Amino acid sequence: MTEPDEATRPARRGDPIRVLIVDDHALIRRSLEMALSAETDIEVVGEASDGQEAIELADRLTPDVMLMDVRMPRRSGIEAAREIKASVPSTRIIMLTVSDEEEDLFDAIKAGATGYLLKNVQLDEVPEAVRGVHEGQSLINPAMAAKLITEFANMSRKEAERPPQLPVPRLTDREMEVLRLVAKGMNNREIAKQLFISENTVKNHVRNILDKLQLHSRMEAVVYAVRERMLEIT
Question: In this predicted structure, what is the pLDDT of residue 113?
């Protein structure tokens, strides 16, 4: 029998990636579950059929990654993402959508989602998306990333008063180089090629950046850096 605290144990290196699937269509949930359960490094820990159930299960199971529909009954995926990121900030959320309609996805990312997948995606691409998000990558195209970064930067500039902030953590020159390329929408492979280093080295730099900034995703790191004027929008 599973111990009572098993579902909320902290993840250890080598543990499978724990995934919660949320969609109001049973067929889609089943398809995603089948695609992920075939992977030895991924474990589907639960399923939910609406936003309210997603909030409750996320709080109880603390999954590493969630695959969640944007539009659902009771509570939308956007509403659910906002609450889940407030209560379980370490959970990375991938929104599922039937189209890349900009307004919905823009709101979802601002609510805390790490990226999105179209529902017509090839099922063999889903495990890779889960792994990428779990490693801190963002499933956002460069155009949307630039728009998000610009909006967050403008919002911060318009603030009349800001509460006292802790000193901004200092990043190394190489970490700043990596962060600038992340802000341009580059993935690990592209950054490695640009800087003539290995992908593993890029991953290590990204991990160090997130640790220093105490953040959970590349997009959060870029938005933070723009807000704190560590990066300039060009």
Answer: 87
Taking the chain (234 residues) in runs of 10, the rounded mean pLDDT of each run is: 39 80 95 94 96 96 96 90 92 86 74 84 91 83 68 57 63 94 86 94 93 83 82 68
Please write the tens of the pLDDT for every residue from 60-82: 999 999 999 998 988 899 999 99
Go through the domains of the chain in sequence order and give each one's CATH number.
6-134 (3.40.50.2300), 144-227 (1.10.10.10)
Tell me the C-alpha distance between 19 and 46, whole Å. Answer: 7
Residue closest to 224 by CA, chosen among 148, 128, 111: 148
Positive or negative: CA dihedral 74, 78, 79, 85? positive
Number of Cβ atoms within 10 Å of the Cβ of 113? 30
Q: Give me the amino acid identity at 150.
A: T
Q: Which residues of 122-140 are buried (b: 16+ CB within 10 A; e: fewer)?
A: eeeebbebbebbbebbbbb
Pairing relationship of beta strands 65-69 and 17-22 according to DSSP bridges: parallel
Q: Indicate if the alpha-carbon torsion angle 86, 33, 3, 57 is positive or negative.
A: positive
The model's pTM is 0.71
Question: Which secondary structure element, helix H or strand E, spans residue 18, and what is its range?
Answer: strand 17-22
